[in-house]
């Protein structure tokens, strides 16, 4: 008999694309998808379970599936339009707590894979060249989202200690880029004139949207205990990225950078999460050896991801209506999920 998997946030890009991949795999006999709305894309073998992850009701629903694997992809990286930071906290932290309570009551669960964020390391002036997984709490968690990610990781670490028979993998993702991604970061990069902080040229690191989902799948097939960084090898400076994209940098004094981004919303720039400001000043790069050597998956390098993103944007293979830190993506050759949360997942 094959494995049985449940995917939270199945209506978002990450959940939909993972379900699509697993449907083609012979490893999984059952695929369940939990969300408040069904996925827009057609999924042939995925059973949709309509439920809010924050609702204690999931403690009754999930045990009935008999799943041995849970993929927690229902993590928001920025508030949805019209919603507050508190609601972001409720989904990320309260939702994760309810999921863990449901996993406690599901005796068949043996693997949990969580889509986390490399933002837990923090962009700092004295940061190491590449963060390894053991460096997560070297610097203070300065923003609400960082603190939420830190709290979320603590919950899953505690669960893994209480239930050592369950392998819990925390995937710490760098921002993703792809031809159909629509997020504050990609809108920033698509702007004709891109604000930059005068005197700073950060080294940045990305993961291709396709590789981001493939890394989830690879981890399901070879789960590891603990955290795993997910990014393309290498890095690219912001100045080089903008030259490659043919964008005009607009130097701004660092104290005025955040107000400039806020004012830029009137000209098509999306509001950037608070952790983006230090990220675009100091940069953030992570060591991906554990993903490559232990999980056995090697994403395309950061520079190749950037080139592919620029090429596809120039050829207009992007989301309809996009004029132009993370977020959702949708490959140009695949149908777009009808998901209001797609921009922030």
Helix content: 25-40%
* N- to C-terminal distance: 32 Å
Average of the residue pLDDT scores = 86
Q: Note the main sheet.
A: 7 strands, parallel
- Portion in strands: 15-25%
Name the overall outline. Answer: globular
Order of helices and strands: EHEEHEHEHEEHEEEHEEHEHHHH
The strand line-up of the biggest sheet is 3-2-1-4-5-6-11
Question: What's the number of extended β-strand segments?
Answer: 13
Low-confidence stretches: 317-345
**How does the helix and strand content classify structurally?**
alpha/beta
Radius of gyration: 19 Å
How many DSSP helices? 11
Fold and architecture overview:
- The protein has 345 residues and is an alpha/beta fold.
- It is 34% helix and 17% strand.
- The protein contains eleven helices and 13 strands.
- Strand 5 (111-117), helix 4 (144-162) and strand 6 form a beta-alpha-beta unit.
- Helix 1 crosses helix 6 and helix 3 (85-104) packs parallel to helix 4 (144-162).
- The longest helix has 20 residues, at 85-104.
- The protein is globular, with a radius of gyration of 19 Å.
């Amino acid at each position: 008999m094959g494995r049985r998997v449940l995917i939270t946030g199945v209506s978002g890009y990450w959940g939909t694309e993972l379900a699509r991949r697993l449907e083609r795999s012979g490893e999984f006999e059952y695929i369940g998808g939990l969300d408040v709305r069904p996925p827009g894309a057609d999924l042939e073998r995925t059973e949709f379970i309509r439920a809010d992850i924050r609702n204690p009701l999931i403690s009754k629903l999930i045990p009935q599936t008999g799943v041995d694997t849970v993929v927690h992809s229902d993590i928001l990286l920025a508030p949805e339009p019209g919603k507050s930071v508190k609601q972001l906290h409720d989904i990320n932290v309260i939702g994760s707590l309810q999921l863990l309570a449901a996993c406690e009551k599901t005796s068949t669960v043996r693997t949990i894979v969580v889509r986390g964020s490399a933002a837990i390391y923090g962009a700092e002036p004295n940061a190491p060249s590449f963060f390894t997984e053991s460096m997560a709490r070297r610097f203070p968690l300065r923003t609400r989202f960082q603190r939420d990610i830190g709290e979320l990781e603590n919950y899953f670490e505690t669960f893994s200690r209480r239930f050592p028979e369950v392998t819990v993998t925390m995937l710490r993702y760098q921002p993703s880029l792809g031809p159909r991604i629509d997020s504050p970061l990609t809108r920033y990069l698509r702007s004709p004139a891109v604000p930059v902080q005068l005197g700073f040229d950060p080294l940045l690191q990305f993961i291709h949207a396709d590789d981001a989902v493939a890394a989830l799948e690879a981890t399901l097939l070879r789960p590891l205990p603990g955290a795993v960084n997910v990014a393309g090898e290498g890095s690219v400076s912001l100045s080089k990225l903008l030259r490659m994209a043919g964008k005009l940098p607009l130097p701004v004094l660092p104290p005025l950078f955040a107000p400039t981004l806020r004012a830029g919303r009137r000209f098509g720039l999306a509001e950037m999460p608070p952790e983006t400001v230090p990220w675009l000043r100091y940069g953030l790069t992570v060591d991906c050896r554990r993903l490559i050597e232990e999980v056995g998956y090697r994403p395309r390098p950061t520079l190749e991801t950037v080139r592919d993103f620029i090429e596809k944007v120039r050829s207009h293979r992007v989301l309809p209506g996009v004029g132009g830190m993370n977020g959702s993506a949708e490959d140009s050759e695949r149908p777009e999920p009808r998901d209001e949360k797609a921009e922030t997942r």
